[in-house]
Amino acid sequence: MFAAYAARIDRDQPLNGLELGERPAPGPRPGWSTVTVKAASLNHHDLWTLRGVGFSEDQLPMILGCDAAGTDEDGNEVVIHSVIGQSGHGVGPREPRSLLTERYQGTFAEQVTVPTWNLLPKPAGLSFEQAACLPTSWLTAYRMLFTNAGVRPGDSVLVQGAGGGVATAAIVLGRAAGLRVYATSRDEAKRKRAVELGATDAFEPGARLPHRVDAVMETVGAATWSHSVKSLRPGGTLVISGATSGDRPSHAELTRIFFLELKIVGSTMGTKDELEDLLSFCTTTGIRPVIDDVLPLDRAREGFERMAAGDLFGKIVLTG
User: Are 33 and 89 in contact (CB under 8 A)?
Assistant: First the structure.
């Protein structure tokens, strides 16, 4: 079957390790189901895999891709929850949880095999392309906002780095939940798009906000960390799920953190129940993932190049 896969690791030039070509189709496995992939979306996790982060050369070649929607063996339309081993279903009792491609072949292929427990029904109102955007970045944003930040309607939130998948999802979800959402981006066009999506206002990184916020959604890391901490009200919460600009800020702002009793919460992915809630939230409110572009799988390299350059707003989706 045709697939986009990591053939080698290159920490400095990750796209050098990306190959497109034939790979073995998945075989049967007890407790697992094979899904015919209709759509799959790109995530920064795929770039980290090509860099060898949390991944070793002895696992090569590895089909990339965490997110997908498609049809199971019985023709049911499904969405894949991409955290494997979270429940123990389909794997050994001592196996730690992992994301697809950390241990198992991913979704950038004609077919993928996952534990049957990891399949959720795709709502009829969501296209395969829309549903494929939800299990990683949108689920991450959902958990950041509603589980780990614990915000309520009327609260204010700062979303750093508008344009990325998680940040874009946080703006849309926050707006739909009745939050006042502020966003930042270096790009004027992306700031304008953030407002069109529902942000109350958008600013350049580091700009002073109209007031301090209840929570900050942080995925950028070192470049925005100091601004994120300074933007919080006393007792506010900073939720971090990524560090695309690096994980070692020059100013950790420790004094401000302890003096104002700020909360720093790490957040990774989400549970199957949260993904089910997210699917229901999209169905009930009518919100849909922001898709930058849909490309055929054989143009996956183009999508990777745009994601690596930050030249997108929302998700890039690959189709068969």
Answer: no
